User: Which sequence fits this backbone?
């Protein structure tokens, strides 16, 4: 008879998760062949190379490995290596209650403390210890606040104040703590007691002089198991030694014992060089073995560490494994591949039936001690091929098969239908109806009380994977591609009375599955969960479910569990919800189905008992403990391990929980967040959601241990991270400083600069205002003067006209006197001479006045002359004088008199002036000069 026992294959991983430590009989028999289903150990932990010793920090819960590459820190997600001085490997590690890490290596030992920001810094204790050359520290123990560092030649004692060296009687192989003392093995001699000061030989221990002792298990003063490398186990009762004749002792002789410890009083674990791990009870009966074939990274175990009752770490020659004692999930696998891919399972009392792509298999179930063992795996004859669905009604199991439907009777199967492709089955009155490749068929009980084929249902011939019956008795059939059919059957369940076809719930809402929630039909589409409006014959989104379901509103499957509770499946996540009668949802728990890498098909969640679920995987199945699932979600230790800010060719690393947490410069505004989850050693699938509340309410998903946020603006930020499946949540706060240009100092400078600029502006404004005032005064004065000048010019013009007229009169009088003097002798000559004298005096006086007038005229028109000369450089002084006369609107005759030339000469001068001014004949010369004068004034 073959055996289904815990074990399997580790898929190139290191982390070990199992349920084998709850009692000595959790596992089945040791070993097994490749055709068995065995519990296997999944997980990934990034620790490679040789791991000589393991310890866990009670403060952070991080695990530390004494590794050949250095000290390795593992935070549950990622591993970080700290090399020791001179690049030597670490041989031993011990962590005290305060979280101080002590390590031993080649010719050195010391301690590590968390520095800023969260990184380990090393301090050597070997400087003043007079360490012996070529010594390596292989063991570190603490008793009564005193540490003992053991090498082959010495024990170095450190009491936190000073250190001293105690030489050993001879080369010491290993130290084993027994209460407040040690038992040490001296090579070629035997065993010694060591009380911290003195070595004393144990009588009768000379039998171990030529043997190597690799483990000592202390069960009290009268029973200590001394485990040798290749000579089995001896029991020491305090005075004498006797060999233990047992299965485990014989196993260790062949496998070479290399480590051992007691998980509790009834469960022992041994690590070997050749054959991995062996578990046994106090009688020496082997309960299980683990090696490369069913979980270990390799078969050479270098160290074992019991993790506070929670689990067991195994340090290997390459990597490490973790066995969790209270894991909520146990994995089973058929490494030989005989079973195939499981599509459906069902329990029938003491048998477990597994429908696979190879056929229908059965195993015997033994859960007498509260744990599960499976024995006697075999295929049910005649069922070879694809099995789709196992269903049980009235104590009878129906097997939906690619070749039809079988009735399972004990460990035999009888074909009761040849209709190919038996899928889901539902009760319909006294009938059962089943979806198939070619429509729907019905079954009813025969005269023997067993189910037998009844009819094909006439009127419907579509491939139907899912069928459901609603509270009105309608049959709902889901076509894989076309949509949903609502069928009304006759009482004999052999034909369709009426049908309603509904292609989809919406434009892009492809139907995936359907179910009954609290007696109400719901349809699972690609975007929502829909109900059906019987009055309007249409679908509607069941919005009342959405607040409670959250992301599970896009679930691909709903599986009934207990009354009012249902499992919702979304990718590899499975959540349990309580659903009220008015379709309100409340989440009870959620977990990640870590081996859900299955072909597209219906997921199955089967209750093995009230507290355990069985879920098929690709090669076997997983068993989940519901109580432990809830407990694990409540004890999550998700944390933000460090924040790394970078930018401007610089970086700053902060530890969110450190007391010296501070803000970072504005230029370092690119953030990378690193996560830790010390409670998640057993988790194969790790997914997290994160957000910064100041940047919005949307959550972002990551499946790695770190994520980045780029180009953050200055300000205060609050980071939130939570597990996708589970209740673990971590928070961190940080500040990005304002740029200097926006800082308080800069603001003060801005205020001072603004004040200075304001003052300067006021002064400039006042200066400009004063200049403007002066300019206005100047312009006003100028305009006044110009007005006065114009008036004076006008007066001057009148004066000139008056003088001209006066001159003309005086000349005319003089001319007449000359005439009278020649023509009349009657007028006295004296009178005539007096008149001539008066006229000559008037003309001389007018000549002086005329010169003054001309001088004033020249001064009043200097601006006008300058503009004309600049614009027409060919003008002569006479031309300018003529322009002045013309501007004053003098006639040609008046100009002739003023210039003492003939009118003909004035006309010629006017012609020449017009030529120099480039004026055409149709332009009035006088008007042109008047306009030029006005332009000059403006």
Assistant:
């Amino acid at each position: 008879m073959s055996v289904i026992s815990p074990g399997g294959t580790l898929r190139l991983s290191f982390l070990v998760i199992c349920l084998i430590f709850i009692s000595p009989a959790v596992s089945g028999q040791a070993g097994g062949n490749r055709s068995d289903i065995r519990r296997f150990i999944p997980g990934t932990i990034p620790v490679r190379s040789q791991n000589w010793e393991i310890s866990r920090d009670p403060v952070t819960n991080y695990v530390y490995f004494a590794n050949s590459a250095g000290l390795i820190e593992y935070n549950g997600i990622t591993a970080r290596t700290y090399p020791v001085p001179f690049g030597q490997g670490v041989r031993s590690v011990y962590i005290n209650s305060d979280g101080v890490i002590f390590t031993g290596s080649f010719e050195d030992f010391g301690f590590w403390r968390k520095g800023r920001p969260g990184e380990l810094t090393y301090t050597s204790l070997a400087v003043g210890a007079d360490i012996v050359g070529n010594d390596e520290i292989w063991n570190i123990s603490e008793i009564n606040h005193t540490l003992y560092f053991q090498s082959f030649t010495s024990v170095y004692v450190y009491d936190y104040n000073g250190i001293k060296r105690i030489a050993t009687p001879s080369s010491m192989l290993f130290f084993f703590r027994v209460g407040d003392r040690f038992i040490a093995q001296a090579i070629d001699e035997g065993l010694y007691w060591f009380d911290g000061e003195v070595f004393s030989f144990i009588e009768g221990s000379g039998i171990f002089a030529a043997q190597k002792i690799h483990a000592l298990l202390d069960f009290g003063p009268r029973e200590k198991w001394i485990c040798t490398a290749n000579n089995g186990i001896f029991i020491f009762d305090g005075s004498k030694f006797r060999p233990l004749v047992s299965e485990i002792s014989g196993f260790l002789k062949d496998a070479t014992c290399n480590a051992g410890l007691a998980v509790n009083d009834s469960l022992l674990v041994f690590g070997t060089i050749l054959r991995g791990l062996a578990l046994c009870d106090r009688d020496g009966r082997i309960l299980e073995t683990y090696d490369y074939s069913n979980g270990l990274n390799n078969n050479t175990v270098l160290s074992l560490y019991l993790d506070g009752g929670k689990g067991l770490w195994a340090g290997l020659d390459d990597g490490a494994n973790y066995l969790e004692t209270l894991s909520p999930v146990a994995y089973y696998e058929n490494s030989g591949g005989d079973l195939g891919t499981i599509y459906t399972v069902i329990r029938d009392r003491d048998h477990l039936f597994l429908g696979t792509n190879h056929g229908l298999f059965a195993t015997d179930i033994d859960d007498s001690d509260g744990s599960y063992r499976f024995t006697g795996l075999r295929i049910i004859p005649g069922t070879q091929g694809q099995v789709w669905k196992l269903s049980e009604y009235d104590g009878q199991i129906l097997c939906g098969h690619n070749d039809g439907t079988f009735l399972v009777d004990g460990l035999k199967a009888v074909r009761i239908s040849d209709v190919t492709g038996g899928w889901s089955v539902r009760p319909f009155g006294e009938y059962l109806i089943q979806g198939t490749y070619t429509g729907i068929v019905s079954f009813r009980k025969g005269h023997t009380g067993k189910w037998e084929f009844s009819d094909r249902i006439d009127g419907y011939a579509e491939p139907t994977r899912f069928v459901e019956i609603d509270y009105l008795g309608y049959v709902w059939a889901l076509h894989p591609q076309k949509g949903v059919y609502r069928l009304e059957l006759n009482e004999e369940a052999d034909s369709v009375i009426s049908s309603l076809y509904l292609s989809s719930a919406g434009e892009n809402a492809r139907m995936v599955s359907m179910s009954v929630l609290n007696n109400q039909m719901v349809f699972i589409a690609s975007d929502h969960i829909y109900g059906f409006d019987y009055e309007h014959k249409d679908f509607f989104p069941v919005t009342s479910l959405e607040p409670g379901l959250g992301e599970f509103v896009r679930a691909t499957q709903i599986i009934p569990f207990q009354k009012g509770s249902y499992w919702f499946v979304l990718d590899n996540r499975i959540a349990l919800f309580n659903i009220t009668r008015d379709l309100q949802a409340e989440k009870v728990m959620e977990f990640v189905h870590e081996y859900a890498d299955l072909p597209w098909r219906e997921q199955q969640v089967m209750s093995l008992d009230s507290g355990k679920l069985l879920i098929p995987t690709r090669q076997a199945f997983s068993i989940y403990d519901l109580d432990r699932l809830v407990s694990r979600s409540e004890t999550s230790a998700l944390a933000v391990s460090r924040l790394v800010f970078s930018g401007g060719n610089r970086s700053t690393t902060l530890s969110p929980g450190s007391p010296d947490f501070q803000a970072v410069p504005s230029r370092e505004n690119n953030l990378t967040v690193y996560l830790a989850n010390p409670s998640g050693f057993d988790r194969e699938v790790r997914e997290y959601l994160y957000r910064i509340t100041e940047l919005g309410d949307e959550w972002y998903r990551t499946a790695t241990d770190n994520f980045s946020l780029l180009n953050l603006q200055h300000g205060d930020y609050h980071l939130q991270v939570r597990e996708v499946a589970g209740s673990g949540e971590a928070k961190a706060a940080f500040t990005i400083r304002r740029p200097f240009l926006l800082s308080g100092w800069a603001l003060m400078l801005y205020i001072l600069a603004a004040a200075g600029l304001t003052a300067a502006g006021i002064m400039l404004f006042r200066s400009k205002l004063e200049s403007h005032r002066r300019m206005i005064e100047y312009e006003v004065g100028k305009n006044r003067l110009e007005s006065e000048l114009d008036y004076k010019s006008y007066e001057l013009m009148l004066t000139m006209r008056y003088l001209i007229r006066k001159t003309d009169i005086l000349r005319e009088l003089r001319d007449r006197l000359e005439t009278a003097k020649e023509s009349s002798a009657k007028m006295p000559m004296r009178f005539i001479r007096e008149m001539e004298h008066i006229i000559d005096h008037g003309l001389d006086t007018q000549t002086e006045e005329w010169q003054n007038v001309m001088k004033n005229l020249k001064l009043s028109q200097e601006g006008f002359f300058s503009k004309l000369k600049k614009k027409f450089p060919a003008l002569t002084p006479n031309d300018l004088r003529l322009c002045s006369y013309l501007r004053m609107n003098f006639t040609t005759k008046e100009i002739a008199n003023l210039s003492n030339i003939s009118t003909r000469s004035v006309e010629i001068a006017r012609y020449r002036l017009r030529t120099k001014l480039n004026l055409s004949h149709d332009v009035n010369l006088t008007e042109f000069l008047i306009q030029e004068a006005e332009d000059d004034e403006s």
Summary: Residues 744-823 form the longest helix (80 residues). The longest strand covers residues 639-647. The chain has ten helices and 65 strands.
